[in-house]
């Protein structure tokens, strides 16, 4: 198992040349494609759905696709994303009427299941469903937009989540999303994260490899 995963958020990619841009970031050393789905209802922005995910698979993308659903309702899209080639599907507990059922649905569709926590959402949602969770995704910004600043309080929450994972004895990924960059990634890893989403920090630079190499150097891996 790879210790640290870097997951560029294609929210900041060039949509007019998406396949090429995703290829470029993967050959630059990224591990996972982070795919932000926004519905202009759960969050005040609108992005893309399963068709674009399938288009990336058809284009030849073989890396894991990490689908971050910022939609309400959630369940209807899950089989569609599984069929479109999603590897991980994560959702916000506030957006699901039945969290246990939604997690089970993701597993039944053959994907890994993630729960996403907004900056103000309590980790207590994990209490009764931890055995069904493969990924805990902590938002370090309020969801909806790329390019926001990392909320420092997330570091405490990461430590808390890391403790919960250790106590569970399970192999759960701890992913962080929002405002991650070369300057703060080491501190975020130290707090317990092992999967790092970065959108603007990577795609707003001309040389993706240079940024990803710097991130890995910061992580010592
Ligand atoms: C925000 C998204 C993030 C975002 C990250 O709602 O979930 O994935 O695109 O972008 P940066 O890295 O620019 O904060
Ligand atoms: Zn995201």
Automatic annotation (TrEMBL):
Record-level GO BP terms: pentose catabolic process; pentose-phosphate shunt
Catalytic activity: D-ribulose 5-phosphate = D-xylulose 5-phosphate
Pfam families xref list: Ribul_P_3_epim
UniProt keyword terms in alphabetical order: Carbohydrate metabolism, Cobalt, Isomerase, Manganese, Metal-binding, Zinc
Keyword check for Lipid metabolism: no
Essential cofactor(s): Fe(2+); a divalent metal cation; Zn(2+); Co(2+)
GO cellular component, one term: cytoplasm
Textual note on the cofactor: Binds 1 divalent metal cation per subunit.
GO MF term (any one): metal ion binding
Domain of life where this protein originates: Bacteria
Sequence positions that bind a divalent metal cation: 34, 36, 68, 177
InterPro entries, per the entry: Aldolase_TIM, Ribul_P_3_epim, Ribul_P_3_epim-like, RibuloseP-bd_barrel
Pathway: Carbohydrate degradation
HAMAP family in UniProt: RPE
Family: Belongs to the ribulose-phosphate 3-epimerase family.
NCBIfam families the UniProt entry points to: PRK05581.1-4 (NF004076), rpe (TIGR01163)
PANTHER family hit by this protein: RIBULOSE-5-PHOSPHATE-3-EPIMERASE (PTHR11749)
Record's function text: Catalyzes the reversible epimerization of D-ribulose 5-phosphate to D-xylulose 5-phosphate.
UniProt-recorded name of the protein: Ribulose-phosphate 3-epimerase
């Amino acid at each position: 198992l790879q210790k640290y995963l870097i997951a560029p958020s294609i929210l900041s990619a060039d949509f007019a040349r998406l396949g090429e841009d995703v290829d470029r970031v993967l050959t630059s050393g990224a591990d996972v494609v982070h795919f932000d789905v926004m519905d202009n209802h759960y969050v005040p922005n609108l992005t893309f759905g399963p068709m674009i995910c399938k288009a990336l698979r058809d284009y030849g993308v073989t890396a894991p696709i990490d689908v971050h659903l910022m939609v309400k309702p959630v369940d209807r899209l899950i089989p569609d994303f599984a069929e479109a080639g999603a590897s991980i599907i994560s959702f916000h507990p506030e957006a699901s009427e039945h969290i246990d059922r939604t997690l089970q649905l993701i597993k039944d569709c053959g994907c890994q299941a993630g729960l996403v926590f907004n900056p103000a959402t309590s980790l207590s949602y994990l209490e009764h469903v931890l055995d069904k969770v493969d990924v805990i995704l902590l938002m370090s910004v309020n969801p909806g937009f790329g390019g926001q600043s990392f909320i420092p309080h997330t570091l405490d929450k990461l430590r808390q989540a890391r403790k919960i994972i250790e106590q569970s004895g399970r192999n759960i990924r701890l992913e962080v999303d929002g405002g991650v960059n070369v300057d703060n990634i080491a501190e975020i890893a130290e707090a317990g994260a092992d999967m790092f989403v970065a959108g603007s920090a990577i795609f707003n630079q001309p040389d993706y490899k240079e940024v990803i190499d710097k991130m890995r150097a910061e992580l010592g891996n």
